């Protein structure tokens, strides 16, 4: 059977680092509150010249280089983002142009913080159907541009960045020892919209709007939703928490990550945490965390990786893949 194997990875953060202490001068908050409630110590904030397209393009270039491939080898680009450069065209198409790709196709995927997990799953479908042989999957965001910098309950939580992987069709034998995506589970439930949304849009206000979140409500649902899709992934494959080499969760809040890992019985030393460095970068958070753990040598070929994310909508999902 066809498997979608990760061939390369790249990530990029904006130049400017903003530590918690700097935010003490923006809203009534403290480094201590932010660290204690979220685990976040700093985030990167895009400068004027940095956009979702420029960050996504750089991450894609780094992933191509890491894979030893060129843009001519790629059939499809999927960009997970909620902060596109323009309402249209899709930022993926702008990235396609920036990469000098004249063939194939590109589109954006909108599932907020779950975007990368949705995009990896979609790329896997295109590869398995034979419609694409190699796909660049990018998560890129400039959430700083959606934030209400007077709202301390949200502005301290988010950051900007981008990560990308190259997925390639490979022959597998249908066993869980195969490299590539082994299973994926996606969910959404629009009845939770008002708990986490942006209060603007082309068809309503005609403005971009600001992010609004009932943090406590999101927190209440997060662990249950995350662990449900992961348990479904274990049930489908016959794998268990003990088989996982690295748990690479969406980086929204360290307390949510810790509680999810605990509920699933995933050992602490197997959990990749980057929320302290990046804050919540929405669709970029999982590929940024993956890239960090690949670069520092933790994730190696053959390792069993569990990805998960949960975000606005609500949307949520999990992917099990062998690196
Ligand atoms: N600094 C200081 N105090 C603050 C701040 C701040 N930045 N923000 C809120 N507070 C205060 C509140 O006003 C409140 O004060 P009060 O008790 O006097 O009313 C107090 O701190 C506690 O607030 P809570 O909201 O109850 O704090 P909580 O422990 O729930 O932490 C947080 C808040 C961090 C937002 C948490 O609820 C959370 O992480 N929620 C989930 C967020 C998330 O995972 N989002 C996921 C996806 S994101 C996406 O899809 C785009």
UniProtKB/TrEMBL annotation:
Pathway: Lipid metabolism; fatty acid biosynthesis
One annotated GO biological process: fatty acid biosynthetic process
Record InterPro entries: ACP_syn_III_C, ACP_syn_III_N, FabH, Thiolase-like
Gene3D superfamilies: 3.40.47.10
Record family assignment: Belongs to the thiolase-like superfamily. FabH family.
Classification via SUPFAM superfamilies: Thiolase-like
Gene Ontology terms: cellular component: cytoplasm
Record keywords, A-Z: Acyltransferase, Cytoplasm, Fatty acid biosynthesis, Fatty acid metabolism, Lipid biosynthesis, Lipid metabolism, Multifunctional enzyme, Transferase
The species this protein was found in: Pseudochrobactrum asaccharolyticum
Domain comment in the entry: The last Arg residue of the ACP-binding site is essential for the weak association between ACP/AcpP and FabH.
Keyword Lipid metabolism: yes
Subcellular compartments: Cytoplasm
EC number: 2.3.1.180
This protein's name: Beta-ketoacyl-[acyl-carrier-protein] synthase III
Pfam family, one: ACP_syn_III
One MF annotation (Gene Ontology) recorded for this entry: 3-oxoacyl-[acyl-carrier-protein] synthase activity
Main EC class the enzyme belongs to: transferase
Domain Beta-ketoacyl-[acyl-carrier-protein] synthase III C-terminal: 235-323
Catalytic reactions on record: malonyl-[ACP] + acetyl-CoA + H(+) = 3-oxobutanoyl-[ACP] + CO2 + CoA
Subunit-structure text: Homodimer.
Catalytic residue positions: 113, 250, 280
Transferase recorded as keyword: yes
């Amino acid at each position: 059977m066809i498997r979608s194997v990760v061939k390369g990875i790249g990530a990029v953060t904006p130049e400017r680092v903003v530590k918690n202490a700097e935010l003490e001068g923006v809203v009534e908050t403290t480094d201590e509150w932010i660290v204690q409630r979220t685990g976040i110590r700093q985030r990167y904030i895009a400068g004027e010249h940095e956009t979702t397209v420029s960050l996504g393009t750089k991450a894609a270039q780094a992933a191509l280089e890491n894979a030893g491939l060129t843009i001519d080898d790629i059939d499809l680009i999927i960009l997970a983002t909620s902060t596109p450069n323009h309402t249209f065209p899709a930022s993926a198409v702008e990235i396609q142009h920036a990469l000098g790709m004249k063939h194939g196709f590109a589109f954006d995927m909108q599932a907020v913080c779950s975007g990368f997990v949705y995009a990896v799953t979609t790329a896997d479908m295109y590869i398995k159907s034979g419609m694409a042989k190699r796909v660049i999957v990018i998560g890129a965001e400039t959430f700083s541009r959606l934030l209400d910098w007077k709202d301390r309950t949200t502005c301290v939580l988010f950051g900007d960045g981008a990560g990308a992987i190259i997925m390639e069709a490979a022959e597998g034998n249908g066993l869980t020892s195969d490299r590539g995506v082994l299973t994926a589970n996606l969910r959404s439930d629009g009845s939770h919209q008002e708990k986490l949304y942006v209060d603007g849009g082309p068809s309503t206000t005609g403005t971009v709007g600001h992010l609004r979140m009932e943090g406590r409500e999101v927190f209440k649902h997060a662990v249950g939703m995350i662990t449900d899709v992961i348990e479904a992934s274990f049930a489908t494959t016959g794998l268990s928490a003990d088989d996982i080499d690295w748990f690479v969760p969406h980086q929204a809040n360290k307390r949510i990550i810790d509680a999810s890992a605990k509920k699933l019985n995933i050992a602490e030393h197997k959990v990749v945490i980057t929320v302290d460095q990046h804050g919540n970068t929405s669709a970029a958070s999982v590929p940024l965390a993956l890239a960090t753990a690949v670069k520092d040598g933790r994730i190696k070929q053959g390792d069993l990786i569990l990805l998960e994310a949960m975000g606005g909508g609500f949307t949520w999902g999990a992917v099990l893949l062998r690196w």
